[in-house]
Structure formats: C-alpha cells, structure tokens
Task: structure prediction
Amino acid sequence: MIMWAALKSSILLSVLCPVALAAIWQSPSQLPSKKYDYIIIGGGAGGSVLANRLSETSSVNVLLIEAGSSDYKNLNIEVPQYVGRLIRSQFDWNFTTVAQSGLNGRSILYERGHVLGGSTAVNFMAYCRGSKDDWNRFAKVTGDQGWSWNSILPYAKKMENFVGPIDGRDISNEVDWNSHGHTGPLRTSVPMYPISTDSRVLNTTSQLSSEFPFNLDYNGVSGNTLGVGWAQFSIANGERQSAALGYLDPILDRRNLDILVNTHVTQLIQTGTSSGKPVFRGVQFSQPGSSQVFKLTASQEVIVSAGAVKTPQLLMLSGIGDSTTLSKFGIKTIVNSPDVGKNLQDHPLVTSSFTVNSTNTLDNLNFDPTFAAQQLQLWQNGHTGQLGLPAANQIAWLRLPSSSGVLQGAQDPSAGPTSAHHEFIITDAYIGFTGQFPAGGNFLTFFTVVVSPASRGSITIQSTNPFDAPVIDAGFFTSEFDVQTMRESIKSMRRFTSAPAWKDWIISEYGDDFINAQTDAQIEAYARASAETINHASSTAAMGKTGSSGSGSGVLNSDLTVKGTVGLRVVDASAFPFIPAAHTQAPVYILAERAADLIKSVNPVY
Result:
C-alpha cells in the first residue's frame, strides 16, 4: 500500500490536465440561460445520485454545483493504491480539527473530498451497506419504515453493479452473488488478486472460530455484518469507482443536466413564504478570489449535499441554526434549528504494525522504486498489477465479548446485535498515520476502528466568510466507552494474530509505542496518542420524526426536508441520526437513491 503518513507534510502530486467535458462548466459565467427545477449543492455520493436520477426525465432541468474541480479522472484518483497521495492535495478540503481533549490535545487532519465525486474520489473505497439494525434504528428514530432494512434493500441493489475480480477466479466462497445488484451505476467487487495474508486470515477464522467466525458476505441480504469476510470495495477492473465516474460520467450528454465546478455556494436565499414558513429555493454562489456573486432560483427544490462538514456550515450561514450561535456572528435567524452542527459522529482508528518473515508484501510498492515503476506500467497498460489492489483483502466486524466488561453498567451505543462495536482492517503492508515511517522492511498492519461510538462532536462556523473553514470538533474519546472499546479491539487483534496461522510469519510487534502498550492503561494511552479519523463524518443535520421540534428532535423531517422550511432538502451523511457501523459511502448512496424517489413522488412531472 502506498503510504500516506509520510506524505502528509509534502506531497508531490503528478496532476493530469483537467477533464474537458461539454456538460461541465468551469465558471458561472459559462452557464446557459436556463430555468432550473432543481439545484443540487455538492457533487459527492448524494449529489451525484440525485443529479443522475432527477435528470432521467428530459423535461426536468437540473444544475449540480461542485466546489472542487472536474478532474475526477486524475491518475492519483483512478489508481486505488495512490489513495495516500490525495491527503493534503488539491482534491482535499485540507481541514483540521480543533485540539482533541480525548487525544492528548492533538489536532488531526480531517480529509474531505474537494473534486467532482466528493469524498468518494479520495476515500479508501470500502463498500459496506451497514447492518439490518442500523437501518431499522433509522426507521424507529424517524418514525418512517421507508428507512428500514427491508425497505432500503432494493435501493442497495439498484445502485450497485457488482462484478467479478480481474483475475477471473471463482468467488463463490468469497461473496453471495445473489445478495448484490448487477446493473446499477456503481461498480463494486472483491479484491482483484490474492495476497500473502489471505490464507492466514481465513485459517484464523477456523482456528479461533468462536471469536472470529467467517462471514461469507457482510453485505448479505440478512443484514448481519458480523464476522471476518472478504472485503468489498468501490473498485472494479483495478480502477476506483467514484460517484462522478459511476453516476455522472455516463450521462454527460444529457442536455437537461448542467454541472458547474470550481464554485462555492455561499448562501441559501429565502425566496418567499408559504403557510408561514420561509421558502428557500434560491442560491448565491461565487468562485474563490472573485468578487463576482451569482444567484439562481430553482422552481422546485434546492438540495444540499455538501457533506457532514460543509452542509451545517452552509445552513448556519443562511440563517438556519441555533439562534444563540447565529447571533454571535450577527446572522439573522430565519429558522431556529438548535441541532444544526451538533451530534457529529465519526469512527476513530488506530493502526498497529508487525514485522513479518516475508519479502512478498505490498511494502515493495513503497520501498522498491523499480518495482513501483513496473507496477505503474502494468496499471497503465491494462489496469493490472498491485496498484489496483485495495487497502485490505479482508475485514472483520466484531462485537465486544461480555468478558471485556465494557458493556457492564454502560449503555450500548450500537444499533443492535447485527451491528459491530469495532472493526479490523487487515493490510499486507506498513500503514501509519503517526510516528516514524520505516525506511524499509515487510509488515502486517491492522486498523482497529470503533464503529459504534458513544462520543459526539460538533461543527460550527468561525466567521460569516463562507470561504473560511468551519470549526471541527470530532469529539474523539470523550466517552470512556469509546477508548475502552478501542482498548479491547487492540487486545482482540493480538488474540487474532496469536492463532497458529500466523506462527513463523509474524516476527514481532513494530514500534516502541505499540510494543510497550501491554496493560489496559498503557493500551488506552497508546490509543489516545495515536488515534486518527477514518473520515466518516456523519449526523450533523440529522433526521428526526417529521414535524417534531426543539433541541434533540433533529434538523430534518424523515423525508430529508429541512424542518421549518419549504423547498429545501439535505441528502448526505449529515442526515443520519446515528452513524452506521459501516464505512459510510454505501449508506449515503442508498440514502440518496431513496431521496430521489421521495422527490419524484411530490413532483407530478415524474
């Protein structure tokens, strides 16, 4: 795996020329004179789905506005193993959190996609729908059975085009083919080649089956994610499958869809009043460094899909938020919505590495320039070779055993028995976000991730300047449950690697901080000193029950419309009431697919 920790301070990014496509406009002044039915803000998973689905009817005009560039076919985006090059690049918003009290006062990088495709163009591409209990909890919290597992499963299949791996192997023992869709816009798959850790991971599921059972498909129709299974990714034929590539690229010839890039929506504009509620069908937008401001009005809806960081910022700048907060910045409160920017949930991770008795790991991509150049040539010639591999060939979704004691006297923040408390991502290379990057060697790395967190953070504004970054407080490890869960995850990882399958292959733990973390207190200290984010920001403009009001009731109705407004909807990860015990891109795609149908149901033209 190409290592991104070493690239944080300086990234030499080989940039290809921006994609020039007829339906993509680089400047607001280029937009055709047209009346739009829908204006979508943000071209990530949510916005790309909506742009595609709402423009399926030729009489409906759709405008998608993206703050980043149109360069979604850049080499560093397309090549899965180049994901580390995207951190702190021009494709990243380059956000940083405030000092995290639970992380010894450290501020951490907070990567968000700044290109057409949004964070699907810069993420690790892991594809997981979430558990049955995750979605049933959404339905219970919102009072809307349309969010239940049985109701969303058709959307999960509709969005997906699951394909076989490039090596053509039989994958009947790696995935349940019938649990997946095979005609949707987003191509997904299992890893394209076997790697040296595969047999060891799978043998461990037999040797330690009571704690680490094998799960054929954590995206299966049963909705039970638990166990160790073959990883699934939004990668196909060795190439990243972003929202832009899957949902937008094939429809760029639609005359009723316009895509405007390099442009920030700076404010949502009230355009009237209906039944005593403000109507928000107007948008104001501009480009960085330009004094020229543009405005447009949608005839039907404005849909905010700017992500869990930017969406609450935009709402607050537009007078939708906690009145106390808005008054501090001299912003007139149009809708007092105290939950805007609250309830931030994310998944903290720790990476721990082992030295191994092998010369056949993906570390060769890091430490052997000749080999790395040969692999690039293979990828450019036919998308073959190791550069098309994902971050891991297997993933484990696990619950805390009762013997851990963590759940005794504590409220379980997970959605239910099919949802994990923590996750392993098992990588055949060195990966580290803190500490000294090794000069060479061969490694095995485990990501341990808390996927049902109790901690909560927040997003707020630091000024009325829309080009200023928001204030991000991830709130990591502010709950003892989370740091204890991470402790138990690291202990569980050590039990996993003690299986006979790893004998004579693992040499030793690597790094003094990891080696010296043996007692519970030492492991917790190690976690606080080294934890980072897996970049799954969620829940900052959450759904609640339709029509409910007041603090804790949510920002959105169950149909994703913004409470107290007309003509305004939010469709992105900020809408989740709880973060799923999953990597969040697939749940956002699912959310947006249903949102498209909800929007169509209230517009008779469909």
Observations:
- The CA atoms of residues 196 and 361 lie 7 Å apart.
